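Predict the 3D structure for this chain.
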Amino acid sequence: MFYSIFESLAHSSVPGARLMSYLSFRSGLAFVLSLIIGIWAGSYIIRRLRAAQVAEKARALGIEGEDVKSKTPTMGGLIILVAILVPCLLIGDLSNGYMLLMLLTTVWLGVLGFMDDYKKLKKRDKKGLAGKYKIIAQVGIGIIVATTMYLNPDMVIVENSEVISTETQRVEEVIYNEGDVVKSPQTTIPFVKNNNFNYSWLTDWMGGEAAEIGGWIIFLLVSIFFVAATSNGANLNDGLDGLCSGLSAISGVALMAMAYLGGNIIYSSYLNIMYVPGSGELVVFMAAFVGALVGFLWYNSSPASVFMGDTGSLTLGGIIAVCAILIHKELLLPVLCLLFYLEDLSVIIQTSYFKATGGKRVFKMTPLHHHFQKDAGEVPDVLINRPHKRIVESKIVMRFWIIGMILAVITFVTLKIR
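Done. Predicted structure below.
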């Protein structure tokens, strides 16, 4: 809203009218606004949740701090949603397709998580929404994102062309030609020279236009997979005070930096990566995303005053995945969000092994972060019994954060090392 107003005043003599045209200014403003809204709205929302006695009954897990957590209100993801949406609606460019897709993803998955939390709390149904409905919703947003990228004429990439020195045989310059603007299902592969990968290469055998369409279909399937895997991984990761919100903020900072670089032709040329016109608007969204999470951590840090619930966790993972897809960096997610995917895998492995062996376990407890909260010997017939002594919750969270930071640095470094 304010963005449109200031844009109309940009050619006038009104002081400061051009500030909104600077991506750095709007991103900084989005971060500050989301942080303030998160802290201010958080206090009000927590009071309302407590007054309504919206508190999830903790299951008997036998882990540290369980009694206290059973009295903490959940559904605090509403704080995150409000703190993201308000700044983006105020200062975001609502004519930008990338911004609109991110807003749709936030609302779509936020509603999904809210319905799940509501059923658990108000209907006293511990299972919440059936898993198939969550998957359907996640598949739905993945289809919408990939299809929009295919159909929207403004969502294009500019291929980077290398100028090789005849003397040194090294890259002398990276240029972008107007004729290199294409609509193509390309992505970035980590640690590979000339690291643009076109999904259509996998369907070249089909020939002609069919190969291109086949590539977009593969891209759609990959998008669906990453949206579902990352959303569910963040959902499983939300089990300790500040764990999911902190890791999501770290991923958000990395994606914000990559969106800025990929949306700026100068930096894209320097790093020899594809230039994605218009994707710079994602920097504003991700700044609001990070600010909202920092504001939420004001209340979610140990000991937590509120939990995000599925309203927040399902949304956070989906936002991270969709942002990576929009900047054509989805194949970097296995590095950036490795901890989320390990949470997914730990549950799959534990369940499969339990059924196959008639009651034996691989981990002391899943999702993975709970494994570290059990002493050796507490769980019989467990394959991995280390560490022998339980680790306090705050130390688990901090160590996961440190690993998340290392993964973010590695992900970022892949843009240059190949």
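The radius of gyration is 23 Å.
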